[in-house]
Amino acid sequence: MAQNQLKPIRKKKLGNYPHTMVIFSITLSLFVIGLFGILLIHAGKLSKIIKESIEVQVYLDRDLTQPQLAALKKTLSKKEYIAYKEKEAQVRFFSKEEGAKEFIKESGEDFLTFLGENPLRDAYILKINPDFSESNQLKEIKSDLENIPGVFEVQYVESLITSINKNLQKLSIILISFAGILVLVVIILINNTLKLALFSQRFLIRSMQLVGATSYFIQRPFLNRATFQGIISGILASLLLMGLLKYAYYQLNELYVLRDELQIVILFGCLIALGCILGFFSSYRAVKKYLGMSLDELY
Length: 299
Fold this sequence. Notes:
The protein is an alpha+beta fold. Helices cover 66% and strands 8% of the residues. The strands form two sheets. A four-stranded antiparallel sheet has the order 4-5-1-6. The mean pLDDT is 81.
């Protein structure tokens, strides 16, 4: 007799639909966009490092006294285009004796023995602020430096810097364009995922509407759940990306130099916010659509 008793049928609650699939889909979508975001962050850091390595050689007039050299260094350090590291201007003195030693080491020939004197000049090596790394800006910097008393000549590898700037500009355009397309695809994917998840609830929505429930009362549980799913998905995607980053840094130690912890934290925050916002608005659009459909259109 007990065996023949029917099990009680669980009633469907408003807003109660399988959420594992939804969380998995949203997490995967956010993970993909987060992965590309990390690529952008590392590419941006690499671009900054390349620009920070730009150097300008300022060759000096001969026989400058120590006070003149010190005054010249002070003048150079005050220029707005000079890079700073830990509040110290990146201006390094490179004597002609150091230049001679370096030349002899690289070429294996001691030119001092047959020339009898050192024909090289003292120089200051300047690191340029990345904000002034464009080719036209460097030309202006060269012109400005050559007008300083005590400066004989200013040199930098113009062709290499022009090539670097062009390649970095092309790479930035490609990455930003691809990022825009990827964000659009993710938005559509999350929207369709929630729309399909709510499809099974369309008759329950209609039933609640027929018994006099307000639109707000019907929408609220769906919006709450979708928002919660978006937050959970953003957190899961961030955790997966964090694990992937740690593994990548462990396998490639050189990659660790390109990290930017602040931007990565901001990216994780954006993923959580994006999941929350997309979940809310996608659910809102889907429920509103079913509320406005006729009974025949629901089938």
